[in-house]
Amino acid sequence: MVDVEKVCVLVPTYNEAATIQSVVEGFKEQGFEHILVMDGGSSDDTQQLAADAGARVEEQSGSGKGQAVREAVTLISQPVVLMADGDSTYRADEAERMLAPIFDGEAEHVIGDRFANMQPGAMTRLNRFGNRMINRAFGFIHGQRLTDILSGYRAFTTESFQRLSLSAQGFGIETEMAVECVKHDVRTVVVPITYEPRPDESETNLRPFRDGGNIILRLYQMAKTNNPLFYFGSIGVLSGFVGVLLAAYVGYAWVFNGVAHDVLALAGGVALLFGLQLVMFGVLSDLIVTSNQRQQNRLRRISEQLEKGEETGVTTLNEPHLETGERVDAAEASEATPPEQNQ
Ligand SMILES: Nc1nc2c(ncn2[C@@H]2O[C@H](COP(=O)(O)OP(=O)(O)OP(=O)(O)O)[C@@H](O)[C@H]2O)c(=O)[nH]1
Ligand SMILES: [Mg+2]
Hints:
Blueprint: E1 7-13, H1 20-29, E2 35-39, H2 46-52, E3 56-59, H3 65-75, E4 80-83, H4 95-103, E5 109-118, H5 125-142, E6 154-157, H6 158-163, H7 173-183, E7 188-195, H8 208-226, H9 228-256, H10 262-312, E8 319-320, E9 327-328, H11 330-336
Parallel strand pairs: 1-2, 1-4, 2-3, 5-7
Antiparallel strand pairs: 4-6, 5-6, 8-9
The structure holds guanosine-5'-triphosphate and magnesium ion.
Magnesium ion binds near residues 85, 87 and 89.
């Protein structure tokens, strides 16, 4: 059962005077009392209208949606955050659906899938195409299908948010959150939601080509620590491909025309070797990252179990034994240990 007292609704806004009042009132009607509007210094009446509707209003110290979200979470004292846009494209009556997996203990991060019930006119064809490409690229690079990683309707625990290392200033924040959730093993679920069109009188802050380009670049940059085989390997394969093309041309010219292209042959050889080296480097980095992640997740699980043990007085380390792979029950292990050694 969702406990609204434990939830803060976070609404980042920039010039959303046309809609912010109805957004805040919508969440109030659903019983939410803690509503934080994090404004980016709107030049219209957004701040005043949000405050009049009963929200706490803060102005971010930097700029961009990403910076606003990161700063806002530091100001929130509730353990759960429900994040929505201020443009009335998400429905407050679907808040319960977003929060249920967190309160049921099923997830720490919830993404609302806008494609599940996209209303006509809610997303331009270009944005829909861009979103699909980005979701595919995310699945391919980061190995998890999250359906709609750029969705602005999200619910998460503040504890899990703090585990993520986020640095995006603008619209890259959703991408970063999705990648970091995979990286830090944050239990994430996707729930279907409705996506409404922006009312005619409100204006988008999104610039599809610039913001889309930044998001794709960020996805690629984040592959460095999440999927280094792709990060280095993709450039390696490209370089190797150029090398093979050059070698084929040089070979053809020599065999059929009797012309030797020394410089091109050298360049082709270098490109091929460089490509091969990058792929090898990617394979090695992948090994290191995988084993490092496994250890980190293991350490986190152990520390969670120890923390739980401190609360309940029973410590059970349900971890596979390093060498044998057998699970060790720490309660049993400490019983078997003579008391004088157990201090
Ligand atoms: N605080 C803050 N909020 C911002 C900033 N830029 C955008 N936002 C808010 O972030 C939310 C999402 O931005 P939108 O412009 O709706 O982006 P979008 O949903 O991807 O694009 P649309 O399809 O046009 O709605 C909205 O509530 C904006 O007001 C910013 O610089 N600072
Ligand atoms: Mg929007």
